Amino acid sequence: xxxxxxxxxxxxxxxxxxxxxxxxxxxxxxxxxxxxxxxxxxxxxxxxxxxxxxxxxxxxxxxxxxxxxxxxxxxxxxxxxxxxxxxxxxxxxxxxxxxxxxxxxxxxxxxxxxxxxxxxxxxxxxxxxxxxxxxxxxxxxxxxxxxxxxxxxxxxxxxxxxxxxxxxxxxxxxxxxxxxxxxxxxxxxxxxxxxxxxxxxxxxxxxxxxxxxxxxxxxxxxxxxxxxxxxxxxxxxxxxxxxxxxxxxxxxxxxxxxxxxxxxxxxxxxxxxxxxxxxxxxxxxxxxxxxxxxxxxxxxxxxxxxxxxxxxxxxxxxxxxxxxxxxxxxxxxxxxxxxxxxxxxx
Length: 346
What we know:
Blueprint: E1 7-12, E2 15-20, H1 21-43, H2 51-58, H3 64-99, H4 111-125, H5 131-152, H6 159-183, H7 186-197, H8 205-226, H9 229-233, H10 236-241, H11 246-268, H12 274-286, H13 293-313, H14 322-344
Antiparallel strand pairs: 1-2
Helix pairs in contact: 1-3, 1-12, 1-13, 2-3, 3-8, 3-11, 3-12, 3-13, 4-5, 4-6, 4-7, 4-11, 5-6, 5-11, 6-7, 8-11, 12-13, 13-14
């Protein structure tokens, strides 16, 4: 974690971990908030279930009817919102740290758009479905990341150039995605358009496993190397003087963050603005210029879980895609961010 304020150091087994108290408290509060909203989502729906019955079912002591609703209908969706939100928040924190730019999130540098292109190719050209679409999204995200890196690389990697190149590639892929939908059959085009909105409705345990593997494998990698982000933000020369392996740390962080974004998009589609908004919102809560990866992941989980509750209840009788909610809130956030930047620079 990277934050100002008091710190505590935990030592044991030859290892030491330095924790920033404010970031730790903020991350814990956000994680609890996300879990609380997740519990509410488990209790509400077409059939409301008391909290006690949900907890009894989760403990393995529920009746058959409650178990079916909880385990088959609601728990996969709730777990996906938590995991996808955490993956996007952590990925956004890494990319914003590497690019030193609040707009340097997977949304803006084109990674989620690349994942969408891969998924659309599978859906509309190869006639694939299910896990094949998820695999296409992952491959599309990875290829997009490699393409942006190669196009932006010139005598080293400049963060500003990476962001600009990502925006350009994103625009090109958006056009390609529109063309793919245009040339598809009506039913295919409708299904593809719904996928592009970003939704957790109808997702099952396959998607849970997919994004859980990405989070369990890659988030610890990001946390381990994330301690170098504050040094990298000061410049390569200063980071080298402090013993940071600049090239390796940057490559590992970027690869892991791309993997988190790819796993999240493969499970739920391109959810907009969570990766962009979660890190700075967590930083404001922790009263720090950079809140760190865990608080950002917790904020992402809280935002997406709350967004999914709003998606289910904003319009009575309609379960709208959660991507619509995050896009609406994210648009307002981006407007505020740009307005604040304008005031700051006079």
